[in-house]
Amino acid sequence: MICADYCKDFKCKCGDCRRVCCGGWGITVSDAEYFRLLGLPCSEELRRRLDVALAPADDPSPERFAVMKPSYTGKCRLINEEGLCSLQIECGEDVLPAVCRMYPRSFTAERAGCSCSCERVVEMLMRPEPISFSEPLPEPLSRYVKAMSDRSAPVSERVIRLVDAALPSGLYYNGPVLLSMYATTLAEHSEFMRETVVPITDAYAADAEKLASDSAEFDRIFPRADEWFENILVNRMFLTGFPSDDPVASVCGLACEYALLRAMTLKASSEEDFVDRVSELYRYIGHTNFDKNSTAAINICGALSRNGVRSMVLAVK
């Protein structure tokens, strides 16, 4: 198994996390975990929490048998006032559902890393050093990671090189307008896109000068952001085994991912704010078929081409 170098140093921030990992997410448990938790010996207080937290899924399967129902705050009902898991505190880590024990770690038979939907992971990747790996990466992933790690060019140019190699030529587009159209298309099936991303992209589509000034200000405040973006993008390339069986979708998704990263973070006022914006975006990316959906959205906009996707990347560079 190939491991990303930061894995060994990852440690949950626990109660210091600004947004707990289970906040706003539908956490599911298997049938074995559900019945084990129902019969778990524990205090009366924890039993009350568990009884209201667990509910059978609408369409249960052995792997997705029940869900953890959030409270009115959007957080898991097992999180206490200090932001800690009352189940783990009282009964130990071994009783946690698998998803709670593993997150944000991502394991396959070939690779081990962590998701940028976790703010601690983003913080760890905000460093000047590129990500290294415990073993040489297989091809073609190694070739793509090397291209994305080529610091002789800005990240936007590295993304464009991949786009140029994967997509046919086509018409140029108004980049900010295309980004807005793309985000609006995805928003048809995403509350996050509709409520968080579309207002940003719409505002920049309506005021290209504001987009340019915000980009310049961002680069002034965060002069090393290109190193951060590189690590964030390389991390997801590694976790997903880039490219997939559909290289066009993979490259298109990567370009859209970079465009959204830039658009989402241009208004960041501090490194902490940057982290929050990135992790929020990856909560969306990590729980959707992002590459396929992005390719379809760009195609609906009539811009699934080298120059079309190029226009969107250049708009936010």
Question: Any chance you could write out the topology, listing elements then pairs?
Answer:
Layout lengths: L1 E2 L23 E3 L1 H8 L5 H10 E3 L9 E3 L17 H6 L6 H5 L2 E3 L3 E4 L4 H7 L15 H8 L6 H12 L8 H12 L4 H16 L1 H14 L3 H16 L6 H19 L5 H15 L4 H11 L5 H11 L1
Parallel strand pairs: 1-6
Antiparallel strand pairs: 2-4, 3-4, 5-6
Helix pairs in contact: 5-13, 6-11, 7-12, 7-15, 8-9, 8-14, 8-15, 12-13, 12-14, 12-15
Features:
15 helices, mainly alpha, 3-stranded antiparallel sheet, 317 residues, globular, 3-stranded mixed sheet, 54% helix, 6 strands, 2 domains, single chain
How would you describe the overall organization of this protein?
This protein has 317 residues and is mostly helical. The chain has two domains: 81 residues, no CATH class; 202 residues, no CATH class. 54% of the residues lie in helices and 6% in strands. The chain is built from 15 helices and six strands. It has a three-stranded mixed β-sheet, with helices on one face. It has a three-stranded antiparallel β-sheet with strand order 2-4-3. 38% of the residues are buried.
